[in-house]
Every structure is written in structure tokens, then in C-alpha cells.
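Bench log, entry 3. Co-assembly request; chain sequences pasted below exactly as received.
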Amino acid sequence: MSAKTEIAIKIKDLHTKFGSTIIHEGLNLEIRRGEIIGIIGESGSGKTTLLREILLLDKPLAGLIEVFNKNILDLNKKQCLWLRRRCGVMFQQGALFSSLTVAENVAVPLHEHTKLSKNLIKEIVAFKIALVGLPSSVETKYPDQLSGGMIKRAAVARAIALDPEILFLDEPTAGLDPISALALDKLILQLKKTLGLTIVVITHDLDTLWAVTDRVAVLADKHLLDVMPIKDLIKLEHFWLQEYFHGPRGRAANRD
Amino acid sequence: MSDFSHSTNIIKASLTNKADKIYCNGDWTLDGISQLELQIKKFSWPKITTIIFDGSSIQNMDTAGAWLLFRTQQTLELAGHTIILQGLNAKHSDLLQMMRNHAANYQPSTPPPSYNILERIGQKTYKNYNQLIDFLAFVGETFIVFLQAIFSPTRIRWQALFANLYSAGVTALPIIGLLSFLIGIVLAYQGGSQLNKYGANILIVDLVGITLLREIAPLLTAIIVAGRTGSAYTAQIGTMRVTEEIDALRTIGISPMELLVLPKLLALIILMPLLSAYADIMGILGGMLISKLSFGVSMIDFIDRFPKAVSLTNYLIGISKAPFFAAAIALIASYQGFKVKGGAESVGKQVTISVVQSIFLVIVLDAVFAIVFNLLGIGFFK
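Structure output for the full assembly:
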């Protein structure tokens, strides 16, 4: 890795507290441009909170978060748009708007942030929906008519509607059957390859970690334990990591 | 902190025609192409078969820009031109190749068929007819559960029943009391000022008493309960459907009818006559106050005149309507709750339908009662 690698997200000495519960205590992390980084950690270790803080949905107590070398913690409303344009998010449950069809869902950010004609937006939407591997027949369907895997794909399509530079995926394969999960892993790799996205994946799916991530960040004891490629990570001597990777499920994923 | 606005560094994308060669410039990105789209529409293309596009001065390109370039190319090809693209860098040609692949594989979804007015009327009628049958089936099912519960009271969920009695009854007292008091005031004012012309002030008692006890109090109570409690019932059952709690109850072996519908139905049937009687009292108090303050009918006179003016039948007619209103509200609210399908929006929609239908049915029932009592000749003679 060259020293010149551009940093997409830089988190420095982050502290987070909810009530009297300390979530992060001096967390540091750098995410490089163009990489797929996995974030793992026990339930309640603040993975999703970290993601929400980068997206300005939650506020940390202290610390610094930089996106493309710009501190995002003191943005005003207008400057927030700058961040919103650069980040796409797929939430755990998809969070598609239930009153809109899939095509309308994907079109929401385009209508909101661009001045393109309706026709052009429709065509771009059709492209994004095809890009995530959904058939054109789902365009006119409502979220409650879709399967779990389709909802996640549609949510990805909405997340990449504005061609963001960073894509956040919260548990992309949770609750999917192995075939859909594998297909989603492939989609993540394809998005990185074709669109050059920086992708942050929160996941517990060991197969996903092996298949897609360049590096994996481990949150434990309220800070970043380490961040490195998964093949190095499994060699670390840490109680929780050993359990994680060398329990029966971890071994199964690591078979090849 | 440098600048955060994403538009300042954007070079608007454009096309220029130099000696019949088209040069693409600027940022072919979502932010850059808004004017380009218009420019392309009006662009006067060179009148030659082979048009050469030069993309070497395209600064940035995203999928939207690539699609626009591809679409332009496609339109021109359809018009009989041959297009040659030159000078695109590797990344941009990759994007364009993606568009080419997409367009080759894309089959537009068939738009839903459109129906003419007769077909639509037919469909709507059929749908409403089915809904009516469905609702009647629901009423029947509830009635069976109701009978079963009457014959084996252990099946009644007492805890749920009392919770409903409290939330639909006790907590509704302030609003029902206040509103019927105000209605009593309004009735006394309007009626009194007319009767005053004839010097028949004492007849305010007849007017306020009969109108309130027989019609207004039960109706007002029912409308408040439909808006306040009926909507809550629909929202509760509807949300439980969305979160699959209803299905969970079934799998545990608890009948949603017994747990969710029956206590609500019983609670409202018990409460509505009580609330209605309470509304009677508060309304009369309002009427009494105005009679004294504005029309010189003292409270003693008012109370003295009351039993002579307002027969017991009038009171009983009003009260007897209340359980029917209650059943209508509880049944519609529960039924609409079970009809929720999908997500948040559906809950809102069914709640609206529930309140509108309950109030509608309450007023229709009231009219039916008026006609029936009239035909039977009940309550019109003192």
C-alpha cells in the first residue's frame, strides 16, 4: 500500500455516551478511498452507532470525524447536503418508503437533489435497479410485495441513486438465505469494481467478511481493537476474536 | 474548512460542434448535466451520416452522465447516423460499456393495463361488494365469539376488558363532559332566543331536555368515541398486524378475536350508555346555566319543569341507542385494523377509513332509529 492512499473517512479519538453507558472511548479509525472495510464487534459494541455518527444521525460526545479531509461534526444545514450527496446508506431493514413503488423510492434522491427531467430520472432509475440485479418488473411493485433479498437490493439501488462516493451497508446479508446472501456479496464487489465506491460494511456474516472485505475493523472494549485484512486478523491473540473466528461457525466459513 | 458546496467546482457539461465534430466538455455528472439535457434536445446535429464524438475533455463522469451520452448516441443511431466515440479515458469507456450492456439486456416492464370508466366502476363495485360480505362475515364471527363468551365467562379476558373500560371510558370523561356542556349552552341560547319572542321562556326546558336526551347526547358521545377510541383500536390492531404480533398470538394459541376484539366490543357496549347518560347530565347543566343567566328561568323552575316536559321514554330512547352505536364503532374499528396490509401508510389509511365509516354508520343508525320509533309511535306522546 502506497503512503499516498487517500483517506475517505478519518475518525479520531471518538467518545460516545448514551446516558451513563459509554459506547466509544477514544476510538480511532481510518478508512481508505476505494476499499471495502468490514466492521465487526459484539452486539452493543457501537458499530451501528459509529455509522450513525458518520451520517450525522447521532452526535458523539467528543472527537473528530473527517470525510474527505473535512470535519463533518460542525456542519450547518447547507454543508450537510455536501455530506448527504457523498454518502449512500442501506439500512438494516431496507427502510424503503412503504407508500412508494421501488422505482419511486430510487427516484426520491434524484428528484430531491437534481434538476433533471422526469424522463431522464426514470431512465437512470431503471439503470440503477438493473445494476443491483433486480428485474424491471419490480419497478412498479411496493416494498411489501418484495422478498427480503429484493428489499435489500432495492435499498442498495436507492443508496447509489446519486452515485455516492461512500456506501454504507448495515448488515446487508442478515436474514437472507445463503443464495441471496452470496448474490449480495457479489453485488458489493461489483459495485466497488464498476463504480469505484468506498464501501463500509457492518456485518456478522463471516462469509461476507471473507468474500468482500479488503480490511476488517474490530470494535471491542469501547475502542478499535485493530484493523487489518481478515487473513491476518484470524491470527490475532484475542479472546473474543478467537471465539469469533475459531468457533464452529467461524471455522466453517474459513474452510477454503 | 474549505468549501462544502458541491456545485462551485462543477464545470457544467456541454457539447460544442467544431467542423462537424462534436466535442464533449465539462463534468458529465448529476450536478453537471442538468443544462446539458436541454442543450441536447435543441442541438442542431451536423447533417452527415457519420458523426464523431470526442470525449477527451470530459472531466468527470458518473452513471447519469454516461447514460445521457449513451442515450444521445442511441437516438442519433436510430435517426440513421453512425456514431464514433473518441478520446474517452478508460474509466469513462467502462461506464459507457455498462450502459450499453444495460440497454441491451433491459426489457421495460409492462405498464399496468388501463381500464375504461365502466370497467373501473365494475371493479370498484365488485371490490366494495366483497368488502361488505367480508365485513358481515367478521360481524358474524365476532357474534359467535360473543355468544361463547356469554355462556362461558371464563373465556372473557377480564384484564383486557378493564383496561379498555378505563382507557375508553374514564379517560374520556373530561372531553365528553366539556363538549356536551358546551352543546347544552348552545342549544339553550339558540332555542331560548326564539322562545323569548313568544314569552315562552320556560319551554327551554322542553327544548334542551328532549333534544339532548333523545338525540344529541348519544350522537355526540358516539362521534367522540369513534374519533378517540375507534381510531386507537384500528391503529393498535393494524400495527400489530404489521409487526406480525397477530400471527404470533395465533401460533401461541390465543385467539385474536378473544383477546383483541371481544374486550373492546364489550367495553364499548358497557360504556356507551354510561357515557351517554353522563353527557345528558352535563348538557342539561349547560342548558340550565344559560336559562338562568340569559332567560330568567331559575334552576328551581328548570328542575321543577323537567319531569313534566321530558318523559322517561325520551331518556330511555336515547340511552337504548348507545349500545348499538358502540357495537358499530367497535366492529368497524377492529375490522379495519385487521385489514391493514404492508406498512405505516396502510395503518394511516385504515384508521381514516375506520373513523369515517364509524361516524357514517352511527348517523345512519340514528336515522333508522328515528324512523322505527316514529313508525312504532314511541316517545312522541308524553
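Chain A touches chain B at residues 70-71, 75, 78-79, 81-82, 85, 98-99, 110, 113-117, 120, 123-124, 126-128, 130-131, 135-140, 142-144, 162-163, 194-196 (CB under 8 Å). The CA atoms of residues 94 and 155 of chain A lie 5 Å apart.
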